[in-house]
Amino acid sequence: MAELMAEPRVACRTPAEGRDGVTNIPEWKFDAVQGAILEVLGQGPVAFSELPDAVKVQLPHGDLDRLGSVGWHVTTVKLEMEVRGELARVPGKGPQMVTRVERA
User: Fold this and answer.
1) Which helix (H) or strand (E) holds 10?
2) End-to-end CA distance of the chain
3) Is residue 18 part of a domain?
């Protein structure tokens, strides 16, 4: 009997103080959503509330069909990207805005 290989997963953390739980998602989902977020933010800051719809447009239909909840995955991947320093929240009042962090 052939052994089933476990699908590679990515541990997604949150930058929030006092929250130390980790959500593990399939690597292909993380990579697809991360790439789409970076593509969207390449045009400049975006309101977090608009990010799921903008990401949806960037994802290939095959990935979109298999992904599940786009909003949930965008939130989960966005939080991990904040922890990694790949994106940041724009300071200020009003709706949460996110922007890409350019590395030197």
Assistant:
1) strand 9-12
2) 50
3) no
Q: Which domain holds residue 53?
A: 25-100
Question: Which contiguous run of DSSP H or E holds residue 72?
Answer: helix 70-84
User: 88 in a domain, yes or no?
Assistant: yes
CATH code for the domain in which residue 83 is found: 1.10.10
Q: Is the dihedral of CA 26, 29, 32, 36 positive or negative?
A: negative
Mean pLDDT in residue range 33-52: 98
Report the domain count for the chain.
Answer: 1
Q: In whole angstroms, what separates CA 84 from the centre of its chain?
A: 11
DSSP letter for each residue of 12-55: E---STT----EEEEHHHHHHHHHHHHHHHTTS-EEGGGHHHHH
Does residue 1 form part of some domain? no
pLDDT tens per residue across span 46-96: 999 999 999 999 999 999 999 999 999 999 999 999 999 999 999 999 999
Supply the DSSP symbol for 91.
P
Q: What is the pTM of this model?
A: 0.91
